[in-house]
Specification:
By secondary structure, the protein is of the alpha+beta class. The protein has 3 domains: 105 residues, Immunoglobulin-like; 433 residues, Alpha/alpha barrel (Glycosyltransferase); 97 residues, Immunoglobulin-like, CATH 2.60.40. Helix content is 30%, strand content 14%. It contains 15 helices and 19 strands. The strands form 4 sheets. The chain has an 8-stranded mixed beta sheet. Strand 18 and strand 19 form a beta hairpin. The longest helix is centred in the middle third of the chain and has 18 residues.
């Protein structure tokens, strides 16, 4: 029965042919083709549906209608629909508009399905694997990530991704073919060694799209500065989770490289007018840009060095904190939401600004400038105003949805992460819902009605595509500078201004890009490492607000904060660890007793519950007064203390 229903759905939701127009075509409901997280915002778009049009949600396994509602302003909402038990597939049918493709609703569906693909991209997209033989003169064809230099900041966001949900990544250690990097920790260490090996490299390389440097000063040919930014993240992570994998001698080499070059490479301050671009989309001097000089990057790097240095006996944390505070104050004073060169114009790097301010409040809230939260509140209000449309898409202006030629991919895929981070800090459920709308946009709730990644046979064969997503981006550019055709998890395209409010026709072009077509048809912008970095950030910050840690009494009836020696308690963690919805998954938390830290294993309470527990007996002979439990690192911690009553 299910196969029949699915076949009917596929036929009902096929792309329209070239002869159809907006006047004749009835657009089907566009849903998040992967599905929706339990207990989070859920919505779809049915373009052209009149207000009041009824819609129904049907369970494809039982053929039963499980939810009903009405469409308003082309949107249908079903946030209150949170089915229990094993995840089933559903479809949405709107009167007169046919049916959607099937989708799931499950615990932490986005994170558990997408997080591995997010770092798999950086495993596959490396320009080389052997650091001893690589020729840096070809950096634009290789580098740590192909089609990019050291400015990609991959290591920073790989480290934040691990810190946000570490037990999830510890379960993924399989390799692909002859790739030498298997898991996220190994990938981080590979990028760290790259950054150290080429910390002072400064060209020459192939010249593309302009030159780098301060306005009025000699031009640089390679972004060597940002190797230090990546090493700073490694040095910070050493003290939280990298010690078992990184020997102290190597760590101290990385730290010394940062300390010796930090001010010489202008890492201590905000850098403006740093590149002169000849690219048609952003010609001229750029105050900030996507190539390693994002507004807010100074906050990230100096906070990470502060975190490193505060653990060292001979450290100098205060100067890095001062520089981080100066960078944050600069953002608070000068970040202009109406200046496109501070916002969408810098495309793939735009997400760094709000995320850097948010990171300050996560990592060291008492040290952040006092106006930090107020600036983020202003940004949140601006975003709500700019997304006041049925796509929930952040528009460019009153007359333009998106760029007429290219938006690259730094908009919706990365914007969700910024919204998640700020919504968590402001306790703003409306902004969090907008963050989920951005992820829906990535998975098909957009004018083209497809995922932003091309579903090629090559990617499917290597496990490089999202399971259950039927319609991928219709065009790919597999053999560009990034050579991303066989790279897992690549994002390939994003709607142009001409595709809004709806794409009239969508032409599928397999395996090639016949130039960049700026008309009505969708086109592939060509994936890029920096684009996927923003998507990685969204998956990182989405965990804020959905993870929780509690300790209950032995009967699991009451939450407690005081315990006695010899008492048995239940530790309860809710986190994005429910990878296999047919078995009980595993997790862990850290228990700190005085100077000792141990790992406590957790098991899911049942199949597909997403809640992980363990019974723990307080040692009878303990003489400490406080036990500390935590999950996560670097500001992403869920933590609590237990007072031991002797």
């Amino acid at each position: 029965m299910k196969k029949i229903v699915l076949a009917a759905l596929i036929l009902a939701s096929m792309f329209c042919n070239a002869q159809e127009t907006n006047e004749t075509r009835k657009f089907e409901p566009y849903v998040n083709q992967l599905g929706y997280n339990l207990n989070e915002s859920k919505r779809f778009v049915c373009y052209g549906a009149e207000d009041g049009t009824s819609f129904k949600i049907t369970n494809t396994a039982t053929s039963k209608i499980v939810f009903e509602g009405e469409i308003l302003n082309n949107e249908g909402w079903f946030s209150d629909f949170n089915p229990d038990g094993i995840a089933d597939e559903f479809i949405i049918t709107a009167d007169g508009h046919g049916s959607s493709v099937p989708f799931l609703i499950a615990d932490h569906l986005l994170e558990t399905t997408s997080s591995k693909l997010a770092y798999d991209f950086f495993v596959d997209a490396r320009g080389f694997s052997d650091l001893s033989t690589y020729d840096m003169a070809a950096v634009y064809g290789g580098g740590p990530t192909r089609d990019g230099g050291a400015y990609g900041l991959e290591t920073i966001f790989e480290i934040l991704q691990y810190a946000s949900n570490p037990a999830l990544f510890d379960n993924w250690k399989s390799e692909l073919g002859d790739k030498k990097v298997a898991d996220l920790i190994e990938l981080i260490l590979w990028h760290a060694e790259f950054a150290y090996k080429y910390v002072d490299y400064n060209g020459p390389v192939k010249k593309r799209h302009g030159t780098l440097g301060y306005q009025g000063q000699p031009r640089m040919t390679y972004d060597y500065w940002n190797t230090l930014d990546q090493l700073a993240a490694v040095c910070a992570a050493y003290h939280s989770f990298l010690k078992p994998y990184l020997d102290e001698e190597t760590y101290q080499k990385y730290r010394k490289a940062c300390l010796d070059n930090w001010e010489a490479y202008d890492r201590h301050k905000v850098v403006r007018f740093w590149t002169y671009s000849t690219k048609w989309v952003d010609q001229g001097f750029q105050e900030f840009n996507e190539m390693g000089n994002a507004y807010g990057q100074s906050v990230f790097r100096n906070l990470l060095m502060y975190e490193c240095e505060r653990h060292e006996k001979d450290g100098s944390p205060e100067k890095f904190l001062k520089w981080a505070q100066a960078g944050a104050s600069d953002i608070i004073k000068n970040w202009d939401f109406e200046n496109p060169r501070h916002m969408w114009w810098i495309r793939n790097a735009e997400h760094i600004t709000p995320q850097a301010l948010s990171f300050f409040l996560l990592l060291a809230p008492e040290k952040a400038p006092k106006e930090t939260k107020e600036k983020l509140e202003a940004w949140a209000l601006h975003m709500k105003q700019k997304t006041n449309n049925f796509w929930k898409y952040r528009t460019h202006s009153e007359s333009e949805w998106a760029h007429p030629k290219t938006k690259e991919l730094g908009g919706a895929p990365a914007l969700g992460g910024s919204m998640f981070a700020v919504a968590h800090l402001l306790n703003d459920p409306e902004l969090r819902a907008l963050g989920w709308a951005q992820t829906d946009f990535v998975f098909g709730v957009n004018p083209v009605g497809t995922h932003l990644s091309n579903k090629s046979d090559d990617r499917v064969k290597i496990g490089g595509y999202w399971p259950g997503v039927e319609k991928g981006w219709p065009q790919s550019h597999p053999n560009g500078f990034g050579e991303l055709g066989k790279v897992r998890g690549t994002l390939d395209g994003s709607p142009l201004d001409s595709q809004f409010p709806i794409a009239e026709t969508v032409e599928t072009i397999e395996g090639k890009n016949e130039g960049r077509v700026f008309g009505k048809n969708a086109y592939a912008t060509e994936g890029w490492g920096i684009s996927n970095r923003g998507w990685q950030a969204t998956l990182t910050f989405s965990t804020l607000g959905s993870h929780s840690l509690k300790v209950l009494d032995s009967e699991s009836t009451t939450e407690i904060s005081e315990v006695k020696p010899g008492q048995t308690v239940n530790i309860l963690l809710k986190a994005a660890l429910n990878v296999d919805r047919n078995t009980k998954d595993k997790g862990w938390v850290l228990l700190k007793t005085g100077e000792q830290t141990e790992n406590i294993a957790l098991t899911e309470t049942g199949i597909n519950t997403g809640i992980f527990t363990a019974k723990f007996k307080i040692p009878k002979n303990t003489d400490v007064n406080i036990l500390e439990l935590s999950y996560g690192f670097l500001g992403f911690e869920q933590s609590l203390t237990l007072n031991v009553q002797h």
